[in-house]
Specification:
The structure holds two protein chains of two kinds. Chain A is built from 16 helices and 18 strands. By secondary structure, chain A is of the alpha+beta class. Chain A has a seven-stranded antiparallel β-sheet with strand order 15-12-14-13-17-18-16, sandwiched between helices. Chain A has a five-stranded antiparallel β-sheet with strand order 5-6-10-8-9. In chain A, β8 and β9 form a beta hairpin. In chain A, α13 runs antiparallel to α14. Chain B is of the alpha/beta class. Chain B has three domains: 87 residues, Alpha-helical ferredoxin (Fumarate Reductase Iron-sulfur Protein, Chain B, domain 2, Orthogonal Bundle); 161 residues, no CATH class; 108 residues. Chain B is 45% helix and 8% strand. A four-stranded parallel β-sheet of chain B has the order 2-1-3-4, sandwiched between helices. In chain B, α14 links the parallel β3 and β4. In chain B, α9 packs parallel to α11. In chain B, 53% of the residues are buried. Classes of the chains: A alpha+beta, B alpha/beta. Chains A and B meet through α2 and α12 of A and α2 and α3 of B. The structure holds flavin-adenine dinucleotide and iron/sulfur cluster (2 copies).
Chain lengths: 469, 405
């Protein structure tokens, strides 16, 4: 039975989106209940798929009057409960806004709509000899809108930096329908006195709907060498990480898989011959050919010195693709082991790496929960994956308890809550562990300034950020 | 296929990572997550768990799936999407939530009786042979009207007496009844490569038709083929249509090796055709979904494509679906047409004279042919099965250097 309220919402939405789609049936909403955390379900009241940027703008002009929350959604790969309607309302799916509007190789920038897929952009840039460096592992599917809104990182962000380092400008539409451009192809502040584009990046859909971006590009590196080294224990792995970080070759990426991650890769179709029980480092150096070629041996030597007798390196594209595919698909591979998982995203000073990882194993073992660590080791950005079965009563609670203890320790050692996945709804409860009341009040005043009733993506980042109609 | 209801457990290894969205033709077409693998799995699992009542939209999104299985290849969690989908589709048909089109229901009944089916399509074979353009799907060819592939193979076996490996050949239902010339070419190519070809008389349709439509009867066909092929003493069972190969593979495995004929020839380094030095032909090779995503083959071996003697390259987006999807282009012609429009656009500008679109599945051939017949591709091009490009013609002999047993 459709309630009168719902059918009036449907009616209004259809008027706002004459060309796009409006979904309101139970089975049409079901596909939009979750993001990358599949076990959590928050059904929206409606989903809209604007046909293009103009229609999205039209929708935003009328959205405030709808009196329900508005939740932006790109590919829905967020791992923090970001693009889901926790307080109900309308999910706005940007899947039709896929135009790459310009690739400017003289100025090294491109202009893209928010729904462009990351790897689609990569493929389009390649023939021009340029690239857009941030590379979250969800690249085959995630959108630039989601990347900017969560300030995504990725394996190569160790040297290249995260999304915010590459956003020159953001076009955003507020809930009053006004359109604003923060920055632009020339970067800087645009017509604004201060760099407000930085408010937009990482705002997790709480401020505005982004329609397009101007992104900074770099020339493709001339030469890339990829290294794969395995270690018998965490101590030697950690030694290698420290040495790499300090090394003059300045690696582009330093990634780690623990033995459970290695076992998972080896039992999949992505197996690449990693020894059982080993910790694996995946390292890359890139740059001008003569320069990087000259550094290859010293990096291999460093990896050996730290305690590996299994160092392989190659400049072959096929091998490189294979190793990265295994690394990047590993999040999905977890499905072979367990129906559900929670992934934490803490960042810690690298000196505390071995200690915090041990805590992860100890806590998980004690609670009889499996933990797999696959992460951006260079930045100290941990991703412990806790595997559980959401249908078994009490399992999720155990995972939440471990997560909380882990977070407390992370903060004690001087770390923080999230490196790249965002806070969303999943990690908002930990915010007070990191930020005091004054800081929380200050941070909350930002979304309050942009949409005072918190109509944009309520109950995200701050768990008391309710929309009050 | 079991007929028990799906339990929520069945869906549980989907982590909701979304990697499958990017490759799904119906998601690309509509931008609607419900019309994606992750979305469909969600609808089915929510319904199985009792959280979502039966809904006409679930039926709609289920029917929208092409069954291309690109999502299986993309899925890191190895969710058996194809198996789940087949089960759900059968359930939907059995409970009248979905009704395949009348033409498909009739055809599904007909393929279970090969003699009748062959007879019914005799006029169509005659008209094709005479060069009539019958339908947008019917690519030109000159099938034998009366002689069966089995009779033909026996004749050639007697004449050439190959001594190499022994294979059993699935001749297929539509392949035999309508596109028999491709079966004949397959027999010639195999025998020229010194392969002994056996065609079990008692074989039946592979069951793909039933799988694609969700109609009953697949288990009987599978049983028939288990009996026909199961106890043969052969080196391999080969198929020249990747959809049939995929279906037969599921039926006979584990135990029997079912191979795509082109993959099999790749192992033998097939005899190479010579072409004129100034031959301007260009072959664009498309890879059928049921070859790369169903059978999980890497592609068509390069040595086989080289052996055609033509200049070839992979068609752009070669691993993406062309929209044929078994019977999808009949069940959902508008979607199939839009998918094909995107995929075939390159042919208008493609280099080469003549231009050949080469593939290895008759249903894809029909779909590609319709690109010309419906005006999506305005320049002339031919659709050919790769095996036809290796065809030595009627007058051939087995080279003395051929592989020996
Ligand atoms: C297997 C896997 C691996 C991953 N690896 C990484 C990784 O290495 N690094 C990393 O940083 N992340 C990673 N992620 C997390 C996720 O992919 C990223 O956060 C990504 O940026 C999300 O993009 P999306 O298009 O899916 O956005 P969504 O998940 O749809 O949305 C994410 C957030 O952005 C907001 N948003 C989306 N579009 C807009 C818009 N147009 N305007 C305003 N707000 C918007 C949403 O409201 C939501 O808060 C991974 C996820 C998975 C499943
Ligand atoms: S089989 Fe093809 S159409 Fe169906 S869900 Fe998978 S990718 Fe999409
Ligand atoms: S790729 Fe596999 S695990 Fe990921 S959402 Fe699709 S079906 Fe689920």
């Amino acid at each position: 039975m459709t309630s009168p309220v719902k059918s009036s919402l449907e009616h209004q939405l259809k008027a706002l989106l004459p060309r796009g789609r409006v979904l309101t049936s139970a089975a049409q909403l079901a596909g939009y209940g979750a993001d990358g955390l599949g076990y959590k379900n928050h059904l929206p009241d409606a989903v809209v798929i604007p046909a293009d940027a103009e229609e999205l703008a039209g929708f935003m002009r009328g959205a405030k009057a709808l009196g329900v929350p508005v939740v932006m959604r790109g590919a829905g790969t967020s791992l923090s409960g970001g693009p889901v309607a926790v307080q109900g309302g309308v999910v706005v799916h940007t899947s039709a806004l896929k135009k790459i509007r310009e690739i400017n190789t003289e100025g090294f920038w491109c202009e893209v709509e928010c729904g462009v897929g990351l790897n689609d952009l990569d493929a389009a840039l390649k023939p021009y000899g340029v690239f857009y460096p941030p590379d979250p592992s969800s690249g085959p599917v995630c959108t630039l809108g989601g990347n900017v809104a969560s300030n995504a990182g990725g394996a190569h962000c160790f040297r290249y930096g995260v999304t915010s380092n590459y956003v020159l400008g953001v076009e955003a539409i507020m809930l009053d329908g006004s359109l604003h451009r923060f920055g632009g192809p020339a970067g800087g502040r645009g017509p604004w006195r201060e760099d407000w584009k930085r408010f937009m990046i990482g705002s997790e859909g709480t401020l505005a709907a982004f329609t397009r971006f101007w992104l900074r590009l770099l020339p493709l590196p001339e030469k890339v060498w990829t290294f794969r080294a395995t270690y018998p224990d965490m101590k030697t792995t950690e030694a290698a990480i420290h040495a790499l970080v300090a090394h003059s070759s300045y690696p582009a990426a330093i990634e780690m898989l623990d033995p459970r991650g290695v076992a998972m890769v080896e039992s999949s179709q992505m197996a690449c011959g990693l020894p059982e029980g080993s910790f694996m480092l995946l390292v890359e150096i890139d740059g001008p050919e003569a320069l990087v070629n000259a550094r290859v041996q010293s990096v291999a030597e460093l990896l050996r010195q730290a305690g590996s007798n299994d160092v392989m390196f190659s400049d072959e594209e096929a091998l490189r693709q294979k190793l990265w595919k295994a690394r990047k698909a590993s999040g999905g591979l977890l499905g072979q082991l367990s129906p559900s998982y929670v992934v934490q995203d803490a960042v810690i000073p690298k000196r505390a790496l071995a200690e915090v990882l041990q805590l992860v194993y100890d806590e998980a073992d004690a609670a009889n929960i499996r933990a797999v660590n696959i992460f951006h080791a260079g930045d100290g950005n941990l991703h412990p994956n806790f595997l559980f079965d959401s249908r078994v009563p009490g399992e999720l609670e155990k995972v939440e308890l471990i997560s909380k203890r882990l977070m407390q320790r992370v903060i004690e050692v001087g770390g923080t809550l999230s490196g790249e996945h965002g806070i969303g709804n999943d990690k908002s409860a930990y915010m007070p562990l990191v930020f005091g009341p004054d800081s929380m009040r200050l941070q909350l005043s930002v979304p309050a300034a942009f949409n005072p009733a918190h109509q944009m993506n309520p109950l995200k980042v701050f768990d008391n950020r309710h929309f009050v109609a | 296929m079991s007929t028990e209801a799906m339990t929520p457990d069945y869906f549980s290894n989907c982590t909701h990572c979304g990697f499958c969205l990017a490759v799904c033709p119906t998601y690309k077409l509509t931008g609607d997550e419900n019309n994606s693998p992750r979305g469909r799995l969600r609808l089915w699992s929510e319904e199985a768990a009792g959280r979502l009542p039966q809904d006409k939209w679930t039926d709609f999104y289920t029917a929208e799936c092409v069954g291309c299985l690109a999502c299986e290849t993309a899925c890191p969690a190895t969710v058996p999407y194809g198996e789940i989908f087949e089960h759900i589709r059968h359930e939907h048909v059995a409970s009248h939530r979905f009704k395949p089109k009348l033409a498909l229901r009739l055809a599904a009944a007909a393929v279970t009786r090969p003699m009748l089916f062959n007879l019914a399509l005799l006029p169509a074979r005659l008209l094709r042979k005479a060069g009539f353009k019958l339908h947008r799907f019917l690519f030109p060819g000159r099938p034998a009207a009366l002689k069966s592939t089995a009779a033909y193979a026996e004749e050639l076996m007697q004449r050439h007496r190959p001594t190499g490996p022994r294979v059993a050949f699935l001749t297929g239902c539509l392949m035999e009844a309508m596109f028999r010339e491709i079966n004949f070419a397959t027999v010639r190519v195999l025998i020229e490569n010194n392969v002994q070809v056996i065609i079990p008389e008692s074989q039946g349709c592979c069951g793909a038709f039933q799988e694609h439509t969700g109609l009953d009867g697949v288990e009987a066909l599978r049983e028939q083929n288990r009996r026909a092929f199961g106890s043969l003493d052969v080196d391999a069972i080969v198929c020249n249509s990747s959809g049939c190969g995929y279906a037969l593979g599921k039926t006979l495995q584990p135990g029997k090796q079912v191979r795509d004929v082109l993959g099999y020839l790749g192992d033998l380094s097939p005899v190479r055709r010579q072409r004129g030095r100034d031959d301007g032909t260009r072959v664009y090779v498309d890879l059928p979904c049921h070859l790369v995503h169903g059978q999980k083959a890497a592609g068509i071996p390069a040595n086989v494509l080289d052996a055609t003697g033509y200049r070839w390259e992979l068609a752009p987006k070669a691993k993406d679906c062309c929209g044929s999807g078994g019977v999808y282009n009949i069940q959902k012609p508008e979607n199939a047409h839009t998918i094909l429009a995107d995929k075939s656009a390159f042919l208008n500008e493609a280099k080469g004279a003549p231009v050949i679109l080469g593939t290895s599945n008759h249903v894809c051939m029909m779909q590609w042919h319709s690109a010309g017949a419906t005006g999506l591709v305005t320049r002339p091009f031919e659709v050919r099965h790769i095996i036809q490009l290796l065809d030595p013609g009627e007058n051939f002999s087995i080279p003395s250097t051929s592989p020996q047993p």
